[in-house]
Amino acid sequence: MISCGPSEKDFLMKVALTTEKEFRIPVSFEENHVDLNQFYNPGRRQYDANKLLSFIADCSRDELTKLVGLFRVDLFIPILTYIFGQAMLNGHSAVASVYRLRNELYGLKKDETLLLSRTTKEVIHELGHTFGLIHCHVPSCVMRSSTYVEDIDQKSHHLCTRCRASFEERR
Amino acid sequence: MAEKISILIVDDEESVRDSLYNWFIEDGYEVECAEHAKKALALLENRKFDIVLADIKMPGMDGMEMHKRIRALNKDTIVIIMTAFASVDTAVQALKDGAYDYVTKPFDPDDLSHLIRNAATQISLRSENEALKIKVTTLEDIDDLVGQSEAIRKVLKQVESVAQSNSSVIITGESGTGKELVARAIHSNSPRKFFPLISVHCGALTESLLESELFGHEKGAFTGATFNRKGRFEMADGGTIFLDEIATISPKMQIELLRVLETKSFVRVGGNKEITSDFRVICATNRDLKSMVKSGTFREDLFYRLNVVNITIPPLRERPDDIPLLVNHFIRKYCTSMSRDMITIEPGALKHLEKFEFPGNVRELENMIERAIVIGNGKEIRLKDLPMGKEAVSSSVESLDELEKRHIVQILNKYGWNVSRSAKALDVDRVTLYNKIKKYNLKQQE
Asked: Considering its fold, how many domains does chain B have in total?
């Protein structure tokens, strides 16, 4: 997990630990102090997730490691107004952002526990895509598609039985 | 459901194509991309896509023009137009041209998800609807015509070949052979199947009633005509009219019917407005129309107008091989409708049915089975549950020789074994009678 931007180690460690438990594979994190201005789109006042995904893919060291870039900026892709994260299906890299996961953005009280839960789910969800998992219709499955932050709160951080079996087959 | 939906993305911007491709792939859809309309149309000519997401502004052919061409290729493809330059006029035009929806780039992720989900629901409802229509028709056919004999297979083949045409059909056959079922099978296999099949029992109506029934009437046309009423020809518009017992209609009605068949237009009784109706005619009769034409009781021109195709249904006695199948079919039918456990038929009872003549044909057999299920023991149909009397049972197993022997003995006894008088009564010569007495070894009882 590559954290880009200021972050608390404790927060990153908790995300890594839960992700490790869910996939039963070792998860480590590191910080990267890349200048994000090169990914900024002034017209949209957002950061280009496609370019960030390419940047994370370029950080890859070997064929076996999956990389997730965790950002704190607002992500977009050309066709959509915003995204929470993006991944290369069956690939090695993914990106996610905590920007739209914060309660404060919606005029609500800061809630660090909720932010940790949402971030963990988003990281597990995008990593799931890199293992070839597609969106799931089971409401509690972490692979269920979420277009609003409330959708993320509705699901758990676990894979459903079918997605679990699919993951075990592909890993 | 998502796995089955295929999406084609048409946009000249690579980043848009890639973004949408990744988005839909993660949702489990089958996705392909094209950078211009020409490539998209080439792809659409080779395979079917459920949904096409097309940019409105593209070099060469634009999205609106491409949409028209997609509609010409496959009307079922759902086209969603997208553009970065929103304008109400183009949106309205796209929808008028039959586009499913119109979206402005960039979209809200939730809007896109909803749009595709709704389109997918529409696709699945449409295919479900088509499947149900086929199922309903198939069920009707399977249930209606039962039999594997050569004779019934020939009828089914005729039904199949005549169904697709618009030709008039005369179905002939004895009472109870299933003429109306054949008419229904023709209708339900024809392109008219989603329009009504209107049946008219010509034999049950008087001339004036039949006229009002077929052509309808205007309010006040006759005493009791308190409302305007559509006739059967009008009701059969787009579908089929089945005229049962056509041989019973009067000469006046024959002329009127001929005129309607030729012009497909008529006037309601008491009205003056000409009404046109697109219907197909199927008639049925248990009489020999040809001989009626010869004897002058049925119009020759009407006969030829109706008798484009003739289907003759054989009586049940000519296809005894179908009796076991029909028996099982009716057992299934009545046990189901009476909510009873399935029962069987005693081999002896079935053998007896196979030998029976059935003057009332399949209808008689059906009634017998229904009655036997009602009065039976609930486990199997026994010989005693069948309505034929004991005489029928005994006579049917008695050979001709036995009958002859019994009759000769009766006559000889009547005339005190006087051979001359007995031979005269039997209308044979004395030598023949002596030979019969010898053959059957007959002796006068003390």
From this structure: 4
